[in-house]
Design goal:
globular; 16 helices; Rossmann fold
Length: 608
Amino acid sequence: MRLNRRIAVITGAGLGIGKATALRFAEEGARLVLAERDEARLHEVAALVRGLGAEVLPIPCDVTDESNVANLAQEAATLGPVSILVNNVGGGRSGRITDLSVADWDHTMTLSLRSMFLCTRAFVPVMRQQGHGRIVCLSSGARNGTVWNAFHVGASAYSTAKAGVTGFVRTLAIELADHGVTINAVSPGPIDTELAGPYLRRMHEDGLEYSPIRMTPLHRLGTPREVADAVLFLASDEASYITGTTLDVTGGADRLLSLLQSGCANPTGEQARIESFAVMRLKPSCQQNKGSESAVRGFRQMTADLTRRSVMSALPLVAGLAAAPVAAASPRGKALSAITDAEAAERLQDPATRARVRARVAGSCEAETVNIFYRLNVYGFTGEGNLVPFYTLNHLSVNEWTPLPGHRYQARTFECGVYCAFDTDDVLEEWKNPLTGEVRKPFQFLGGPFTVTHGPDGMVAMGAELTPKPMRMEAYGGTLFVSAMADMARPNPVSPEKFPKFSSGPIAYWDTVSTIGAPTAQAFDETLSSADAFHHFQNMGSWHPWMAMGSRPGRTYGRAAGVKVRSLDQIPASALKGLHDHTPEIFDRKGWTSPRFDILDYMAGNPA
């Protein structure tokens, strides 16, 4: 066995390349320390590793946190001296340079560079002491810039971070050489991971000229195992004379892009060879052209006119455990198969189809993060007269979806909301209650995480206050509607005896009804993980403590409308700024480890 009894630490081991590397190392006899911040995924992979007969120590860990990494090194040492480190964690947030926030940039550098630095620093001392070590870092073909990344919503932060991996490896190779420690990088191209694969394939299926499959000489996506094989090679004795190198596992995509960059700058005979190669690769998108001359013209237009935007607007930049928050883009330039209302009803008779469609419409039927933004207009209802406009809550929910066995799909949900003047994005620092005349300071909303598990016939919520009850799921007019309702009447956690000003009474009430709608064709499209969808709901709830309404008769009444957003920059800029300024936790959730409940959070602050 190539790694017989050697202790290997693999970060971001819960999905994709990290998971594949863990399994490949287990096959070669390594003893494994697996680091992953998603405990469910971590223990799932650990079970698979044990099934291969390998020794494994799973450690929940956020490798961007210095104290977490110190604990990881301490725990790993209980198995013995670590001789292999695989820095797999990375990822980032996409955005064009004028839209990219400082927080987005910093988040990407933290995932891809800080994590690598902290882990390498933690494990190098033991490698130097034993005079042997192998460090393998995951870079990306994006380090040189990739057409499909540049054209969807921008990838400057991710490309910069992955280029930094190359510099890190080259420099440390010299620093560590005298101690018998080698350090190299593996640079994957377009890989069919759980998170990225569906989007990469969709780009090809939609006939996009710059799709990664078309721009890859081997004309397919790579597999996580193929990347893991490269990592294994660099971690083994077979690579004992290799250090400071970045090994491309790209199906040749890096070579084609290199030729394009050099050829476009030097339109000579080399350009002709590039164009001939490109015609061969792009042939599926040039089928209507009757000769090679028109195909070459089409290619020249593609390389010269870089203002075209035919690439879908959302593609996660992923490696290991991180992904840009996105939902599936609607198909572009390709007609979806029509499905009648009657056909939809017939297909929904199958429980597996019903569960998958429900998840695809509500969020996703694959492992990905889906964002939903809506505006909730809130009124006061006293039981007399008309509704009284109160304020608008700009609301964002971040939903981390995971498929489960038994036709179930689970979302781990984080929520935030910012109170604004009614029907505007003007954040309220103070609010004058139109019913009492009192001026109050709004308490901005954070909630979760809680989980909702969707199945064929409804959903179950854990950690949330409400238990949703499914209503009919039906298609009409080319739209599939998924509806639910929920109600609650429970003892008020804010005691009216102890807090008469803030408690709405001994019982807290809540009623809501929600409808999600998606194009029927998308709802049943098995090439989509997430359908475009609008969200609408209405609710009535007891007065929130921050309003200081006491036991005054009445409730708040809310009407909300929103959609899945493929990227955060699709949220109106003024609303997004308010969310960034007042609920920053939603954008960087690594520190969000315990449940948040806004009513209890507000009361814990000793309100006046």
